[in-house]
Specification:
2 copies of one chain form a homodimer. With 174 residues, the first copy, chain A, is mainly alpha-helical. Chain A folds into 2 domains: 5-85, Arc Repressor Mutant, subunit A; 89-153. Helices cover 72% and strands 6% of the residues of chain A. Chain A contains 7 helices and 3 strands; from the N terminus they run H-H-E-H-H-E-E-H-H-H. In chain A, strands 1-3-2 form a 3-stranded antiparallel sheet. Chains A and B meet through helix 1, helix 5, helix 6 and helix 7 of A and helix 1, helix 5, helix 6 and helix 7 of B. The first copy, chain A, binds a DNA duplex (30 and 30 nucleotides) through helix 4.
Chain lengths: 174, 174
DNA sequence: CCGTTCTTTCTGTAAGAAGTGAAACATCGG
DNA sequence: CCGATGTTTCACTTCTTACAGAAAGAACGG
């Protein structure tokens, strides 16, 4: 697959973004490539296009499949696995966000709850209080987030549009 | 400073969380420590408590100050700088989120816009369209996010509480 | 000023993550 | 069942980042 300069620029940037958010550069690049391609691509073609080892692509694809971002598909007359990603950006985001919540936020909630119980038992009042505040924050944001990802993009846009008014309606200041 | 097991557990977990989100482990630990301490702490005490090099603490504090999360303060009769972090979790979150948006999302919007213009010029219709969708997504989410951080925690809770009803009110499905 | 205390910068080392290529493994057609 | 094709796993290398410790740099007290 031959990339135009535009496509290359996008893929490289996407890779950088990935690293900043704790996602492997190659993984992010593979995903970007599949998004741009918009069709099932065989692994070796990905490797060639991105100039990375075939094995590296294999690992990255497995990772992406683990996130539910990529699925394997097949093309008639071709034994090779092909891979494609969803073309709906909002759906992509939901997947990743939900999965990260599950993998990272939920365990954090657990740790906080445990720590609070422990602090309670050993009479560490100040620490207990701080952890409780943190827990409350996480719980609120988590719930808000869950409402958020339930929305359709259209709904989201309306909420943004009327956001200020809604806040007034609810009688809460900024 | 002597940490209880509860505090240690929290600080270690916070460090891990940091690494998963592209934040240096020590930086995150220092921040957690200051949050738990809830009072100005001198750098050498931080180093001792976390068992890291004094220089490492210095770098981490500088980083945290860059995020606006930590500020230096002074204690009468002590020449050493002391450092403290805000105790309001919501405020902390706002700071970090806003700053990350500035450092990472905004440049991404720029790259996308450039790439779209370029794709337009060179007639890459499909690519242009995909990038445009991505840009639209980012813009919508960014706006939503801006409404979000404007809210007080109280407002947020109400929105969560009435979230479903609001969506119905707006006539948008899930 | 000069010694003391505290802070930051810098350089080398160590730890960790990412990536390659070879080898093992699987699948399929004939 | 065997050769061909495609995929994954694994051991090793490379690259990056984090960290420690030394040295340099400030700030202050006397």
């Amino acid at each position: 697959m031959n990339l135009t300069t535009t496509e290359t620029k996008f893929i490289l940037h996407w890779g950088e973004m990935g690293t900043r958010w704790g996602i492997n550069r190659t993984v992010a690049q593979v995903h970007a490539l599949l998004y741009i391609a918009g069709r099932p691509v065989p692994a070796d073609e990905i490797a060639q296009t991105l100039s990375v080892a075939r094995s590296n692509v294999s690992t990255s694809l497995r990772e992406l499949q683990g996130w539910g971002l990529v699925k394997a598909s097949h093309v008639l007359g071709d034994r090779r696995d092909h891979f494609e990603t969803m073309q709906d950006v909002w759906a992509m985001f939901k997947l990743v966000a939900t999965e990260r919540k599950r993998r990272e936020i939920d365990p954090t909630l657990g740790v906080l709850k445990e720590a609070i119980a422990q602090a309670e038992k050993s009479g560490e009042k100040a620490t207990r209080e701080k952890l409780a505040q943190m827990l409350e924050f996480f719980e609120t944001v988590t719930e808000a987030f869950e409402e958020f990802v339930k929305m359709s993009p259209g709904a989201l846009k309306k909420v943004v549009k009327y956001g200020g008014k809604l806040q007034k309606l609810l009688g809460v200041g900024t």
